Amino acid sequence: MRNTTVPERDHLDQAYETLAELEHEFTIESLLSRQTNRWPVVSARGLSRTYGKGDAVVHALRDVDIDITEGRLTAIMGPSGSGKSTLMHILAGLDRPTSGTVAIDGVTITDLRDRELTQLRRDKIGFIFQSFNLLATLTADENIVLPMSLARRQADETWRRTVIEAVGLTDRLTHRPSELSGGQQQRVAVARALITRPAVLFADEPTGNLDSRTGGEVLALLRRSVEEFRQTVIMVTHDAGAASIADRIVFLKDGRIVLDRERMTRDAIYDTIKHLETPVAEPVAGVAVEV
User: Fold this and answer.
1) What is the residue range of 161's domain?
2) 248-253 and 73-77 as β-strands: parallel, antiparallel, unpaired?
3) How many domains does the chain have?
4) Is position 282 within any domain?
5) 253, 81 Cβ separation under 8 angstroms
């Protein structure tokens, strides 16, 4: 048997290292990630949030792990007091967890100072609130570009026109909020949230102050932003009809994720919420974060 020389051993070692790297690179998990071409825009690990102390302590969130992948609409639901609003506020950097970490677009926001966090929210996050939150003294157009104005940046004109046309406000740009209907004001809010091309858009009960027809129009805009603009949207809602447009529905109860499902019908969502509102409802075994 021929002895292996030192150079040959070096080549063999390199070959084994290359094979090991390839084996790691082409694991099933890696291949699935490449096929879906979706990566977590928002990622949270071990989120807990408590309020108060001693006998008065309230556990709003308990050790929550969740990933939100890009280009999808995720609805967060749960009974009153389940922690859904607290989860959204922490994911959006509006509140800090008692423990755990949150990353947005690769940046760990729980490590940021207040000024850095404010800049990240301005650059990477869009918000839509139930109460519209428009400035009464500004026109619709001025409200839409307000995030760019605050950042002292000029809005890209092509993108501005695309957004305005998408929300159907071309003939209302010079109107002030008092001259707009509730649905039109929420359209302005949607356009304002999209104008910066955020990494993620958070919608907090976006149809809560609207009638069913107008609310449906706003939901259609959110759905369109996902399908046409590949926008990542996280929506907190108590409305089963609103949640039925989502690609994924995450249910919370008592500060924990108890169910995590892909698209569901309105009736199935309603039945799930009713079940979770009963005292005997138990967490569903085997619930995992999104893949």
Assistant:
1) 40-276
2) parallel
3) 1
4) no
5) no
